[in-house]
Each structure stands twice: as C-alpha cells, then as structure tokens.
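Hi there, hope your week has been kind to you so far. It would help a lot if you went through both lines with me. No rush at all, and the record is pasted right below:

***
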Amino acid sequence: MLNIDLRGKKAFIAGIGDDKGFGWAIAKALHQAGATILVGTWTPMVSIFTTALASGKFDLSRRHSDGTMLEFAAIYPLDATFDTMDDVPSEVRENKRYKDVVGYTVSEVSERLAREHGTIDILVHSLANGPEVQKPLLETSRKGYLAAISASSYSFVSLLAHCAPHMPRGGAALNLTYIASEHVIPGYGGGMSSAKAALESDTRTLAFEAGTRYGVRVNSISAGPYGSRAAKAIGFIDKMIDYSAKNAPLQRQIEAEEVGNAAAFLASGLASAITGEVLHVDCGLHAMGVSLDSPSFTKAS
C-alpha cells in the first residue's frame, strides 16, 4: 500500500489566517502525513490568529481523524508584498497594525526560517489579494492591477527566490491558482485573472529555474470555487459554488480537504517527477466547454 510519508520534513505555509481556507487544509494534510508545520500569517492578522488559536477556537478544526491535533511549530508575521524593510512605506511602518511588529518582510522571514530551522522541504504559497477585485478589468486602476499582481503572483516568485537556497534537492514548492486564469469569470476582476495567469506562467518558468539550480519541484493547484473568508470578498462566491455543483462532471462542490490531499501528494516523493504542472482539483469543471444548466440545454424542445 502506498502511503504519503512526510516524517522529518518541514513545511512553510504562507497565508494562513483562520481555519476556513485552503492554507489550513493543506497544513492539516501535511501535518497528518508527518510534516512539521511552520506558518506565515499576514502581519495585521497575526495577533487575531494566535489569540483565536490559543483560546481553542480552532480546536475542532485542528482535530485529525485519528484524534490527534494539528500543531504549528512556529507562526511568523509575513507581508509578502514587501521583500525588505526598504520596500515598506513609512505610512505602513507607522500603522498601528505594523509598528510593533518586526521581521515581517519576505527576506527577513526566510532568513529567520533558515536560522531557526535550517532547511525547508516544502514551501506553500496560499496568498492572494486584489483590492479592486469587484471592479471589471476595464475599470481597474493601474495601482489596483499592480497590487493584485504583486500580492498574488510576484509574492510567490519572491518567496521561492528567498527560500529555495535553503531547500534541499527534492524539495517542493506549491501555489494556488484559479480557473479565471484560463477562462473568463465575470466578476473576478481587479486584475486578479491576470495575476492568476501570471502565477501559472511563473510556475512553469520557476519549475525550470528552481529545478536546474536547486533540484526543487514547482507546481500549482487550480482549486474549484470554495467559500473561504478570502473568497467571500469577491462577492459572488456562492453563485460560483452553485454553478460548479450543477455543471462540473462530478456535480458537487469541492472540499478543502481534497485540495489538502492533492498538496500532500505533490509535496511527497510520490510526485518526484512532477514539476511545472497545474493540477486541477475542481470536480472536473475546467474540462467543460458548455454549462449544463444553460437555457440552451434545458429549454423544452
């Protein structure tokens, strides 16, 4: 019987701020497979997240099927839109949510990971933000578009560039994308579709560069619509979930656990020859060329 065995591996997951999203599900799957879990949480949310964790708010979600609990070996403040402190504007440095926090840029977090944990075997990018996501692309400002690219795609390039030198050969890096990179999803605006397309293109290029230079595999998971806290900011996620359940080949919505399991596979030795891949975990929705609930198919003949 094949088992996913990540015992002795250390995984850094950037982008966990609660127990509702894919980042949490991936952490849970990797931990259940034996990995040590290190977390990067958006700087303004660190205190909220750690307080909720300590209070037991997430205890039910932390529980594995065998009764053991998901544990985090360390939680680091991280704002992946900044590579160094020189990139942080003064108004951000002085913001009440940042001014008492140190070491939250990508370079600082990666250096701390190397100093405190040596090597990182698995890097997971579960970050995305588009401040104008509810605006059509034609109404998106340059500032909003570039912000979406910076937070949602370049942040992965930066994290891998800083972490890969501290990853062993055979290490694995993963990111999360969405089908709006391939097809038009009305309402998924603000440059986010562009950011996801860039992320997938970067995945292929980084698979070559990180593979030849460090022996690190780089893959992407294109997950179906899911009602995470971040997804709710889009404003129409419930409609997308309903659409997927009616039109995907499996005719149901995905579970976060399924994305976590796919990530555990891609991070494991079972996927040792897989890199530069975009793996769809969406009940097959990406394969459909037409919608089954279209009036063209449902109207009486």
Notes: The chain has a mean pLDDT of 94. The chain has one domain: 10-298. The two ends are 51 Å apart (CA to CA). Strands lie at 10-14, 36-42, 74-78, 122-125, 172-177, 217-223, 278-281.
